[in-house]
Design a protein that fits this description.
Amino acid/polyamine transporter I; about 75% helix
Length: about 425
């Protein structure tokens, strides 16, 4: 192992877009529409539109920052550079806790589709297998992600085709769209944001992308645009085929869409697609978590043990193994729907810092209007506090613990001088 070895810039635009899509077209598209419909009812599409707007604002901020700071760590690094060490730390801590919860949710979703009745064991084995894939290098990660994205898109195309042929059981846009009220729609947007947040994986790999100032901004926008189109098609199809009440009550909504159309023979295709989607998202999440942990370890915000990069594979093996161990521990206890809310809370705070950091940048490096960063920051704050109260309370408590840990460390370091 070498402490001074750096990453190799091996990823092109197609690789970066695939990793972003692999993160966004993950378990969220197969699981998040049910709780979101439970919050917004027939107003689900309004919640989806708000989540997409927030994601676009956040994506442009991330792209603008990544072009100037093409280093590992994403908003942890951007916050430190533009706002100060404390801001960067809060962003990094929120990312790590939020995305570890996402990893557990992805692993459990994979197991629920692939091996019903044996979810926890299979989820743990899936985490161990994908950590192993990552340990052999990022080019293998990108190749596996591309394959998984293709499989997922085929499965989703089957869902849309089946749902379009099913008898209409619900209105896509109708007079009941606002019956859940503003709070319910905002809560659904916060939950749906869980499914959009994958484009951050591109930014966290800033030291492994060729021509990062050009590649990263383009990859983020392309990946997000593709995800918005897919999510809109799935949301419209599910609402039409099931109606908002049945959608909210469903444990496997996309499988139920296929069944409602009488396409029971296609259900295995949806299950395989869901399993591959979860694996693709989990693979990219582990990659991003490893890089953010590495960046935090470089600055002393995590133990410096994790800043090592393996000379052969050029990946932060110690950090990724640690992430895998923590996720495996979580999958034996975590609740899927609770994990979605907890993850959304952490990631929304992460992007709040990203928007504030981009707002602080000089005019010479600005790529997008400041209004987008203001809108992104406001939406992140509003959506975070309107999530289910359990997610807000739990997330706030864990963030407070992280802040306290850093404060204690700084005090001890000053006393040791």
């Amino acid at each position: 192992m070498s402490r001074t070895a750096g990453f190799a810039r091996r990823l092109g635009l197609a690789d970066a877009v695939a990793i972003g899509l692999g993160s966004m077209l993950g378990a969220g598209v197969f699981s998040v529409f049910a709780p979101a419909a439970g919050a917004a009812g027939p107003g689900l599409l309004i919640g989806l539109a708000l989540a997409a707007v927030a994601a676009f604002c956040n994506a442009t901020s991330s792209a603008q920052l990544a072009a100037v700071h093409p280093v590992a760590g994403g908003t942890y690094a951007y916050g430190r550079a533009e706002l100060g060490a404390w801001w960067g730390y809060v962003a990094g801590w929120c990312f790590v806790i939020g995305k570890i919860a996402s990893c557990a949710a992805m692993a459990l979703t994979f197991a629920a589709y692939a091996a019903p009745g044996h979810e926890r064991l299979v989820a743990a084995l899936a985490v161990a297998a994908l950590v192993t894939v990552n340990l052999f290098g990022v080019t293998r990660t990108a190749l596996v992600t591309k394959i998984l994205v293709v499989v997922v898109l085929v499965a989703l195309a089957v869902v849309v085709a089946a749902g379009s042929s099913a008898p209409a059981r619900g209105d896509v846009v109708g007079a009941r769209a606002l019956e859940a009220g503003a709070f319910g729609i905002l809560q659904s947007a916060g939950l749906l944001f869980f499914a959009f947040a994958g484009y951050a994986r591109i930014a966290t790999m800033g030291e492994e992308v060729r021509d990062p100032a050009r590649t990263i901004p383009r990859a983020i926008v392309f990946a997000l645009g593709g995800a918005v189109v897919v999510y809109a098609a799935i949301a419209v199809t599910a609402l039409r085929a099931l109606g908002s009440d049945a959608l909210a009550a469903s444990a496997a909504p996309l499988a139920d869409v296929v069944a409602a159309a009488g396409w029971e023979a296609a259900e295995p295709v949806v299950r395989i697609g869901a399993a591959c989607a979860a694996l693709g998202a989990l693979l990219a999440l582990i990659t991003g978590l490893g890089r953010t942990s590495l960046a935090m370890a470089r600055e002393g915000d995590l133990p410096r043990f994790f800043e090592r990069i393996h000379e052969g594979s050029r990946v932060p093996r110690r950090a990724e193994i640690a992430v895998g161990i923590v996720v495996i521990a979580l999958v034996v206890t975590i609740d899927l729907r609770g994990a979605i809310g907890f993850s959304s809370f952490g990631v929304l705070l992460y992007y709040l810092v990203a928007n504030l950091a981009a707002l602080r940048q000089r005019p010479a490096v600005r790529r997008y209007p400041r209004a987008l960063q203001v809108a992104g920051a406001v939406l992140c704050a509003v959506l975070a506090v309107t999530l289910p109260w359990q997610a807000v309370a739990g997330g706030a408590a864990v963030v407070a613990v992280g802040v306290a840990l850093r404060a204690v460390r700084l005090v001890l370091e000053r006393r040791a001088i």
